[in-house]
Each structure stands twice: as structure tokens, then as C-alpha cells.
Amino acid sequence: MDLTREVFNLVKNHSNALPDIRKTVVLNAPIEKVWKAVSTSEGIAAWFMPNTFEPVLGHPFILHAGPYGDSPCKVTELDPPKRLGFDWDKDWHAVFELRALEDGKTEFTVIHSGWDATKATKFGQPHPAVRQIMDNGWEKIVKEMLVAYIDSQTEHEA
Q1: How far apart are CA 140 and CA 120, in angstroms?
Q2: Distance separating alpha carbons of residues 142 and 28, to the nearest angstrom
Q3: Angle, nearest 10°, between helix axes 147-157 and 31-38?
Q4: What pLDDT digit, counting tens, does each position of 102-151 carry?
Q5: Which of 48, 107, 136, 158 has the fewest CB atoms found within 10 Å of its own CB?
Q6: Is 99 helix (H, G, I), strand (E, B) or coil?
């Protein structure tokens, strides 16, 4: 393939990209506690979904997505206690970013990327439709379920 064709395909593919999903919340817990919630199998299962996660770079794991079946994943980034990234199924990438704030609080951001207007999931659902569903899902998962889990863990220690 010539260079002109490669550049054309890169531009064409890039123009099909949909925006990443980004959700941020400030949690009333120190970064170490939030890291434990987002980087252990038990923690992730408590606020996101059951899984076989292990915090090991390159480790393959499964997210048990209920009626959508099992999603194969692989840990691609691991920088405790600041960043965890994983490939999710065939197209997506998810990143959990943590930032310590004053007063023992932590800012948590999830970034879910890999959306392409021309692609569909393994169930045949177009990415644009699934992206909208997942955007709403991440809103609830991060701002309600993760917050509630962190708060419950803090109460247990009080």
C-alpha cells in the first residue's frame, strides 16, 4: 500500500471516531482506598461488574456482563495508585485515573475509548447506539455505585 493510501485511510478512520466517554467524581476517601476499590477483583465487582481481574500488567481477565455474556479484557496500563487501563472486548479501552486531592479526597475519572461510527458490537449493535447507552451507564456507575461503595467502605472503618 502506498503512503498516500495509508494517510487517506488514517484520516478516513479517524473521522469515524466518536468521542471518548469521560466521567469524573470526587470521592471522600484517600487515594489508597479508592485504588483498592478500582484495582482489585473484589472492589471492581462491588461497584462495576463481576470479574476475574488481577492487577498484573498483561493479565487477561473476564468482565461478566450479565445478559451480554463474558467480555475478554487485558490489563494494558498499571501505575499504582494513579492509573489502570485495560482493553475491553475487541474494540474498547478503559482507563481509571486517580488524583489525590486535599483533605483526604480523591478525584476519579473513567475514560472509555474505542468508539467508531462504522463499527458494531459482537451482538450487531452499532457503536453510536451502544456508546449512548454506555455513557448513561457510566454516569450511574461512577457517580452513584462507586460513590456508594466508597462511602460504605469508609463507614465500615469509622
Answers
A1: 23
A2: 13
A3: 120
A4: 999 999 999 999 999 999 988 889 999 999 999 999 999 999 999 999 99
A5: 158
A6: strand
